[in-house]
Amino acid sequence: MRVAVTGAAGRMGKTNIEAIQAADGVQLGAAIVEASSSLIGADAGEVAGVGKLGVAIVGSLEEVVADFDVLIDFTAPQATLANLELCAANGKAMVIGTTGLSEAERAELNSFGERMPLVFASNMSVGVNLCFKLLAQAAKALGDDYDVEIIEAHHHHKVDSPSGTALSMGEAVAGALGRDLRQCAVYGREGQIGARTQQEIGFATIRAGDVVGDHTVLFATEGERIEITHKASSRMTFAKGAVRAAGWLADKSNGLYDMQDVLSLRD
Ligand SMILES: NC(=O)C1=CN([C@@H]2O[C@H](COP(=O)(O)OP(=O)(O)OC[C@H]3O[C@@H](n4cnc5c(N)ncnc54)[C@H](OP(=O)(O)O)[C@@H]3O)[C@@H](O)[C@H]2O)C=CC1
Ligand SMILES: O=C(O)C1=N[C@H](C(=O)O)C[C@H](O)C1
């Protein structure tokens, strides 16, 4: 299977190329950066730090559309939507890890499932996807008596908040408790805000240094606290998941899938 990588000079783009290089049955077909990048023409493997791969970086996805079967895209919302349109029009599949999409952007992304096979997940790691299951189970068992707070920490370059993973964790808990996250989420607190309401799910964000990605969901009541924590120590955990998803898509028909499908974790 030939895999293309957009955002090829970004943190995840480089790690995705490294993971493709290390995996069996997949090869790098194309590497794409922004049209203004000084890296156009450079070898994608050398930029990713894995040695020469013989794939020259290009500045437009359209230029290399014949060179891949699946695109792995970890970029930014508007870039991802443009790449979806091009892939759908050319019969390509996509694995998308981009976070920070607005509700309207998310609805637009979802609609592409009718036109192409597509895996979209806020977090590609096995551990986080298992946590989604554990969180739903914990929320069901604990019910409304436990306050739920979600705390996430990431590196100082991250541009969206809260993280996509924190939001997915919120959705997993809210769904299990029969709540709508859009109604009960509280993003940060300051000033004379009054006592906490029972139904709210609070989000707290830390941005510091080189933290790859830490997420904790805290369930607290009078007399006890339960914390479910995931800590990523290497971006390779996300990249391995993305490459696994690309391989998984090989025989899939059109549809919107996520890592629960890829990892056979869906009930
Ligand atoms: N689902 C998951 O498991 C994970 C998701 N992520 C998400 O992936 C995304 C990327 O993260 P990260 O790699 O750290 O970010 P980086 O900023 O390091 O990389 C993003 C890349 O996308 C490119 N890009 C941005 N905007 C455009 C555009 N309009 N057109 C073309 N290319 C564009 C950038 O190019 P340039 O540098 O030239 O601007 C850059 O190379 C984020 O949304 C992040 O939250 C991250 C880790 C795991
Ligand atoms: O930007 C990151 O780095 C990460 N983003 C994803 C998110 O927003 O949840 C996944 C991971 O936590 C790393």
UniProtKB/TrEMBL annotation:
This is 4-hydroxy-tetrahydrodipicolinate reductase. The keyword Zinc does not apply. The active site is at H154, K158. Belongs to the DapB family. It is found in: Cytoplasm. Residues 1-124 form the Dihydrodipicolinate reductase N-terminal domain. The keyword Amino-acid biosynthesis applies. SUPFAM superfamilies: Glyceraldehyde-3-phosphate dehydrogenase-like, C-terminal domain, NAD(P)-binding Rossmann-fold domains.
